[in-house]
Amino acid sequence: MTAQLIDGNALSKQLRAEVATRAAALTARGVKPGLAVVLVGENPASQVYVRNKVKACEDAGMHSVLEKYADTMTEAELLARVDALNNDPSIHGILVQLPLPKGIDAHKVIEAIAPEKDVDGFHVASAGALMVGQEGFKPCTPYGCMKMLEFIGVDPKGKHAVVIGRSNIVGKPMAMLLLQANATVTVCHSATPDLAHFTRQADIVVAAVGKRNVLTADMVKPGAVVLDVGMNRTEEGKLCGDVDFDGVKEVASWITPVPGGVGPMTITMLLVNTIESAERAAAAR
Ligand code: GUN
Predict the structure, then answer these.
(1) Can you identify the CATH homologous superfamily of domain 140-263?
(2) Is the peptide bond before 33 cis (omega within 30 degrees of 0)?
(3) pLDDT at site 285
(4) Which of 54, 62, 132, 221 is the most buried (most CB within 10 A)?
(5) Any residues with CB less than 8 A from the CB of 45 and at least 6 apart, and which?
């Protein structure tokens, strides 16, 4: 069996076109949706990510501001910038790129973002809302994974989903979203003694640990859906995920490639959250 590919670029194109239509409608009503992206320090990967986020915003007809600061910026200075953006009516979403330089408490900075502008979904208020099933922003990567399941017509209801990884950004919110969609959810992590024992029972596997070949063909139930959130490099420098793609694609029914799978969906869902925030702000005017 050879799995069908879940094309994150194709789905992103469709969703971003919908965002652009909504952005144009809001702009015509006098509210141009705006995203502020704050980068502190010189992390090369972060520089690429923030550039892509700002470009995606502009391509969708949204306003975007990129604020770049040296790693000498103090926590107090960053908190003051977040406060100013909280009070800026042209900004509907605020994203502080992680990781932050040493000496700045990321939790403190994220908690300073107004929850109604927390388009990353990282604020404790957003995490809490997700936990108790209230309305709030969902973290972009797991939200994108849920959209991919919807796109291929796989309803998690009654299925066994295994999430590998327990980060605040992906693993934990992914488990919550799957649970909310009525899946039976198992969360595995670095201290799970026999990972294959769990993954072999899974109808849906989400791999989100940041380590190559965490999931190999012998660990996958025939016909399972495999979503690969990993972003790693081979010895030759080629981009790859957490899943042994060539092996697993022969066993799974659906699989996301890396690149071109979950990756583009993260930015797409950031745009979706930002337009949502701008629409709420416009409705409240
Ligand atoms: N660093 C890696 N991924 C992300 C993300 O989705 N948002 C933010 N703010 N920082 C990140």
Answers:
(1) NAD(P)-binding Rossmann-like Domain (3.40.50.720)
(2) no
(3) 84
(4) 62
(5) none
Task: Give the atom of ligand 1 at the shortest distance from the alpha carbon of 120.
Answer: 7
State mean pLDDT over 27-45: 97
Q: Output the six-digit token pair for 74.
A: 């103090």
Q: What is the mean pLDDT of residues 70-94?
A: 98
Amino acid in position 30: G
Region 88-115: what's the mean pLDDT? 98
Please give the model's pTM, rounded to 2 decimal places: 0.97
Average pLDDT of every residue of the chain = 97
Query: What's the gap in Å between 120 CA and the centre of ligand 1?
Result: 7
Tell whether 165 is in a known binding site: yes
- All CATH 3.40.50.10860 domain ranges of the chain, comma separated, are 29-116
* Residue 237 assigned to a binding site: no
Question: According to the CATH classification, is domain 29-116 in 3.40.50.10860?
Answer: yes
Among 98, 111, 143, name the best residue to mutate to test ligand 1's pocket (greatest count of ligand atoms within 8 A of Cβ).
98
- What are residue 233's phi and psi, to 5 degrees? -125, 145
